[in-house]
């Protein structure tokens, strides 16, 4: 059984069909990249899976259960986490608290009545937050205010928040957008390391072809909301339809 | 990295310790904060209204000291909503006034015990906050502010005429019958021995003990997961939802908690004044608590209490004449100027200014 499945998924904005009968299937442990030209519907697809948007028709199943009709926080609680395209962090909180917020949600659920319990007693939360910050290389900056971090570190923290939610499936929306070459390199290493150590299933949305070909098991190519090709990096490189629609015939 | 395992071990012993003695044990610097608060509460009425020279300068009086604490509790709870969760309610008069009426009516028909009156008023305010929060939090930003304002104004209208047979309508509720504290001590009577010099009346002592409990409660909430979640929601609501937190329910809890504090304060207000003015439900009351909170400094526990003190001081002392004869008729203007200048010079309010001074003196960063 696939971890994540979409079935005839359609999203229309007025007359525009942003997602057109998409049937996507992600197996456990797989690294899938979704690529496509601007406006191909990549972000819409992620927003549908994370329940930021309601589909016009079709179904989305996670672990065999339909998630259409669930609130975003419920989907996260089921095990789907997302890292945002921009550094969507809690600027006024410390780096440690940023990770603790996500760890709190994963360890203690979407809501609780622990308003009289001191945070010091939440050892599980502290442990997860510490491990996560260690994994993304921000542990030595744990007590800094998140807003003080350089941009690359903010993006790493963004990924850290997504990881601290302890997901089964991680959706990454252009994790290297706006990063310098060094930061990009470090982030790709991070993604590979996380993949190796946590055995996470990834769905990656990315512009940078080099990264996509390097870290994907499988690539899904979207154009005008439709899946036009699907296969291993080598298959996609040689696919004529992809060359035509997306890469514009450029030799790779 | 080498100190990390030690830190982890510390955390675990702390946890089992807490499990044995329960969550009521002070943790971190709670004991220090409570002690400092208790000392300030103990000397405040003496310094303000009886101490030679200082009190002559300040022109303070006992009853105002009590009133400042009561509004301080109101503003403290309001800031949990405004300063921490980032929600501006413009209808908190509903909880303050609602609790005041509830406690007043309770004293007339059921019991005049001050403790039971506070309980009755607070329970009413909490239930009301639950209901109004449920309806108002459907919308954010300005719509939320307007919805809360509308609900509070509806309550004002209801008590001004349709429910006048209970509330006394335009005249306010005059049937408050407060009994002795513990059935022994009339609240207006003076405390024995040195306590009389320090605290003055039983009423002040009663209010001060509740204020101390409120500070302890507020401080603990801010250091519980809630405090962190509230700030996270204020900072980035969407991200909070996308780490798997039920933002809506946490917001509702924040609203109810601030309603709780408003309820405690509103009940004490009736006990203090033995009367509920209709204006306690009017929108200006909601506005006053916003001004006090912002003046004192949002996002701090004690700032709003200081803000309440400054506001009430200008309203009651500066407006009253000696030694402020020249400006007394213009006290509204003075209040406005104090507010504008404070926010202009210290955007984080009076308490933010204190913090900046402390950081400057101690050489701390930020």
Automatic annotation (TrEMBL), chain A:
Task performed by this protein: Probable component of a branched-chain amino-acid transport system.
Domain ABC transporter residue range list: 4-249
PROSITE patterns for the chain: ABC_TRANSPORTER_2
Keywords: Amino-acid transport, ATP-binding, Nucleotide-binding, Transport
Domain of life: Archaea
Record SMART domains: AAA (SM00382)
Annotated organism of origin: Haloplanus ruber
Entry GO MF terms: ATP binding
Transport is among the record's keywords: yes
Protein known as: Probable branched-chain amino acid transport ATP-binding protein LivG
InterPro entries named in the record: AAA+_ATPase (IPR003593), ABC_AA/LPS_Transport (IPR051120), ABC_transporter-like_ATP-bd (IPR003439), BCA_ABC_TP_C (IPR032823), P-loop_NTPase (IPR027417)
Family under the similarity heading: Belongs to the ABC transporter superfamily.
GO biological process: amino acid transport
DNA repair found in the keyword field: no
Automatic annotation (TrEMBL), chain B:
Annotated InterPro entries: ABC_transp_permease, LivM-like
Keyword Transmembrane helix in record: yes
Pfam family membership, one: BPD_transp_2
UniProt membrane topology term: Multi-pass membrane protein
Main location: membrane
Annotated keywords: Cell membrane, Membrane, Transmembrane, Transmembrane helix
Transmembrane segments: 31-48, 60-82, 115-135, 142-159, 202-222, 252-271, 291-314, 326-346
Localization per record: Cell membrane
Keyword Methyltransferase annotated: no
GO CC terms in record: plasma membrane
Protein name per its UniProtKB record: Branched-chain amino acid ABC transporter permease
Species assigned in the record: Haloplanus ruber
Organism lineage: Archaea, Methanobacteriati, Methanobacteriota, Stenosarchaea group, Halobacteria
């Amino acid at each position: 059984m696939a971890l994540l499945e979409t079935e005839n998924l359609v999203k229309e904005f007025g007359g525009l069909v942003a997602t057109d009968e998409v049937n996507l299937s992600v197996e456990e442990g797989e690294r899938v990249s979704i690529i496509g030209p601007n406006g191909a519907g990549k972000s819409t697809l992620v927003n549908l899976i994370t329940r930021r948007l309601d589909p016009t028709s079709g179904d989305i199943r996670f672990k065999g259960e339909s998630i259409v009709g669930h609130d975003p926080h419920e989907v996260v609680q089921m095990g789907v986490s997302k890292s945002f395209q921009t550094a969507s962090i809690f600027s006024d909180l410390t780096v440690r608290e940023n990770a603790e917020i996500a760890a709190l949600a994963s360890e203690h659920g979407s809501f609780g009545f622990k308003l009289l319990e001191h945070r010091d007693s939440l050892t599980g939360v502290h442990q997860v937050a510490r491990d996560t910050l260690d994994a993304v290389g921000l542990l030595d900056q744990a007590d800094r205010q998140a807003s003080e971090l350089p941009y690359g570190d903010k993006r790493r923290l963004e990924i850290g928040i997504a990881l601290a939610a302890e997901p089964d499936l991680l959706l990454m929306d252009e994790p290297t957008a706006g990063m310098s070459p060094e930061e990009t390199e470090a982030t790709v290493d991070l993604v590979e390391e996380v993949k190796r150590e946590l055995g996470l299933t990834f769905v990656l949305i990315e512009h940078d072809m080099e990264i996509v070909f390097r870290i994907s098991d499988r690539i899904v190519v979207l154009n005008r909301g439709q899946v036009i090709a699907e296969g291993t990096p080598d298959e996609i490189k040689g696919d004529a339809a992809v060359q035509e629609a997306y890469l514009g015939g450029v030799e790779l | 990295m080498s100190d990390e395992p030690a830190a982890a071990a510390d955390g675990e012993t702390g946890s089992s310790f807490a499990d044995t003695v329960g969550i009521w044990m002070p943790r971190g610097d709670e004991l220090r904060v409570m002690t400092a608060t208790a000392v300030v509460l103990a000397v405040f009425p003496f310094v303000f209204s009886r101490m030679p020279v200082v009190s002559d300068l300040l022109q303070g009086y006992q009853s105002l000291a009590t009133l400042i604490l009561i509004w301080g509790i109101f503003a403290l709870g309001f800031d949990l909503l405004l300063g921490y969760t980032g929600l501006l309610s413009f209808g908190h008069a509903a909880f303050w006034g609602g609790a005041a009426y509830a406690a007043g009516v309770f004293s007339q028909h059921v019991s005049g015990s001050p403790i039971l009156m506070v309980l009755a008023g607070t329970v009413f305010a909490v239930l009301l906050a639950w209901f109004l929060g449920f309806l108002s939090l459907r919308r954010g930003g300005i719509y939320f502010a307007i919805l809360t304002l509308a609900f509070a104004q509806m309550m004002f209208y209801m008590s001004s005429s349709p429910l006048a047979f209970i509330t006394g309508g335009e005249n306010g509720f005059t049937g408050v019958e407060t009994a002795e504290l513990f059935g022994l001590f009339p609240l207006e009577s003076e405390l024995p021995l040195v306590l009389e010099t320090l605290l003055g009346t039983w009423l002040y002592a009663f209010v001060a003990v509740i204020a101390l409990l409120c500070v302890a409660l507020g401080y603990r909430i801010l250091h519980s997961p809630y405090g962190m979640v509230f700030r996270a929601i204020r900072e980035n609501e969407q991200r909070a939802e996308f780490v798997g937190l039920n933002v809506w329910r946490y917001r509702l809890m924040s609203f109810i908690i601030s309603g709780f504090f408003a309820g405690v304060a509103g009940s004490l207000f009736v006990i203090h004044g033995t009367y509920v003015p209709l204006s306690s439900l009017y929108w200006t009351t909601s506005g006053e608590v916003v001004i006090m909170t912002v003046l004192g400094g949002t996002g701090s526990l004690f700032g709003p209490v200081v803000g309440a003190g400054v506001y009430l001081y200008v309203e009651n002392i500066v407006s009253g004449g000696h030694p402020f004869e020249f400006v007394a008729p213009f006290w509204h203007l003075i209040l406005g100027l104090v507010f504008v200048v404070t926010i202009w010079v210290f955007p984080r309010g009076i308490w933010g200014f204190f913090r900046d001074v402390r950081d400057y003196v101690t050489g701390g960063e930020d």
